[in-house]
Structures are given as structure tokens and as C-alpha cells.
Amino acid sequence: MMTTKEEKRELLHRKWEEQIAECESSNMPVKEWCAVNGVNLNTFYGRVSALKRERLKQSGQQTQEIVPLSMIHESNTADSETDIVPNVCKKENIVIRKSGIEIIVPHDISENMIYSLLRGLKQC
Question: What is the pLDDT of residues 61-70, one digit of tens each?
Fold first, then answer.
């Protein structure tokens, strides 16, 4: 049996889901829909995020963490003292592909921007 607090949260989440569905069906840009309906843009996206987290929690899935990676290029030429000498790769653009979408970003892109891109692609 649900507590009063859980019931209130459930009702609130239903209201948010209705607002989000209304926004999506309006064919208006989110920013415009929020302005017309008196909803703060950051609040709207915060609600979208909260509902996604709640769905993940209910389904038992966990969010995927981003793991930092480093790349080195191993030279095929042997040094007299070492078998293989690792060299840092030439800095090139990063290509991210998912569901027919390709995003090319510079090698010096910030971690926050990569995180935002991956969150956006996850919705595709």
C-alpha cells in the first residue's frame, strides 16, 4: 500500500507526464511551449530527467557511467632497449555514431559536452 507521500509523488509525476506529452504533441519548440504555458525551461527539462530516472529505477536498470579512456599508438619499430615504444596518437576528431546519426566533435571537446551528447543520443 502506498503512503500519502508516495501517492502525492505519483500524482505529481502523472501531471508532469501529461505536460510533457502535451508539449510533444503541440509541434512547438520546447522553449516556445514553456513560454506559452508559463513553465520554466530548466524546470521542464528537470522534470523530464526526473521521470526518466524514476522509470529506470522502477525497471531495475542502472544508468551507465562514462568511463574516461586514453589511447596510445604502439609503434611497430623495435627500439634497442624496448620491444614496443608507445606514442601518443595524433589528435584527431572524435566520431560518435548511433542509430544512423553521426556526430563529429573536436578532440579537445569538454567532458561535460560529451556527456550531454551521449545523454541526447540515449534518447534516440
Answer: 555 566 666 5
